[in-house]
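Much of what follows relies on a compact textual record of a protein's fold. An example makes this concrete, so a full record is given next.
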Amino acid sequence: MTRAVRERGEGRSPLEALQGLALDLLAQRHPLAGVGEWVGYWWRVLVESPALMARGREALEEFEGTLAGLFAEAEGAGPDAYGPRMAAALTVAAYRSVYATVVRRQLAGVPVEEIAAEEGELLRHTFEVLSRVVRTGPQVREG
């Protein structure tokens, strides 16, 4: 994620870089894409462990914080700027929504390749919506 945003190239937004990363992870059937033969086993283990569930929530908070920092860096804002923090929160929530949808579909027995095709469309739509919604927000004065 950090590399994708920092090395995104001239004229490419952080969200465009993250969309490219998400689609690449899906093409590779990486665990972060949520599609693969391992999904059922992984989720059964996860939901049976309160410690793993808690760690998963912590990881999402860390992910959001890192993303907020990357967004702030990309727009030259301070680490506590409202716009990057809101953008990170919305991006994480949107990605979680896609991820939860594809995991539920796979646990319901939908074939992996069908889900992967659907996920690609969901990701494109999600990042399209995010790019319209996520803008630099009002600056909040410190102190």
User: Anything to note?
Assistant: The first helix runs from residue 2 to 6.
